[in-house]
Amino acid sequence: MSLEQIGGLVDAANRLTNEVSEKLSAIDEKVKQATDSVPGAMRALSQQTFYIDAEYGNDSGDGTEADPIKSINEINGRAVNGSEIRVFLKAGQVHYVNGFGFSLSTGMVGFYRWGEAGSPNPEIIFTPIYQQVDNIYRGYVVALSTGNILFRYCNLTTEFDSSLGEMSSQSSFVGYTNSAISVLVHNGRIRLKNVPLTAVYSGYSGRDLYLSTVTVEKVAGADSVSKLVRNRNGTNHTLKLDVYDVVLRDGLTWGDLVDFYPDGRNILSNLDLTVLSGE
Description:
The protein is an alpha/beta fold and about 280 residues long. The chain has one domain (about 50-275): 3 Solenoid (Pectate Lyase C-like). It has three helices and 15 strands. The strands form three sheets. Strands 1, 2, 3, 4, 5, 8, 9, 10, 12, 14 and 15 form an eleven-stranded parallel beta sheet that branches. Strands 6-7 form a two-stranded antiparallel ribbon. A two-stranded parallel ribbon has the order 11-13. The longest helix has about 45 residues, at about 5-45. InterPro entries: Pectin_lyase_fold/virulence.
């Protein structure tokens, strides 16, 4: 083999080495980019925000302030377990949930007014939906197995015509789950008609309830399940009830809204027993 041939082989080997090196560098860069993007993606999903405009929103939108969705139901399937979910509801609008809103295994869910300070609160109206397979009405706005649910500057309304048929004892504005969570309502109004705010089962499901600057009312003629906390079994549920600046309308007492023993042993509250019993 001549020197020229040997030199050609050396040049070819060098070119191949350079090409391999360049490709390896490109692969390394792509791996680095992919690796770097993972924490960013996780951070983005750790807090999800949805804007809802019941009048002009579109459920095919991306849920941003510039492209809001139309319904609370649309959050189902978009929300990621373990995240903080922030739901901004267009001020002054009525946001209906007929049947089922959305559910998560764990996380923090907050509903907030979307609008200028002093603008009217949005209203969420929940109505259970008929399920033919069970011949019963069911539903919830939001259900969470572990975590906290917060409503700030929102009005909460439950509606059900009990003459239509039977409503499941699990149906409530805040969905029943076999677990314990906290529910906080701040600066809003709660109106109850034949559906409770939340349902529990003593020894199996628990709720802590925090109310601040809230008005509570029952629609005239509403039945006995129109409570803040409805107990689904015969033993009263142990409840933490923390309140500040709460107004009960039209002669309501706490005894109309929560179940407690005369000695108060199942309630931890900053209210005294005489207030609870309406004495």
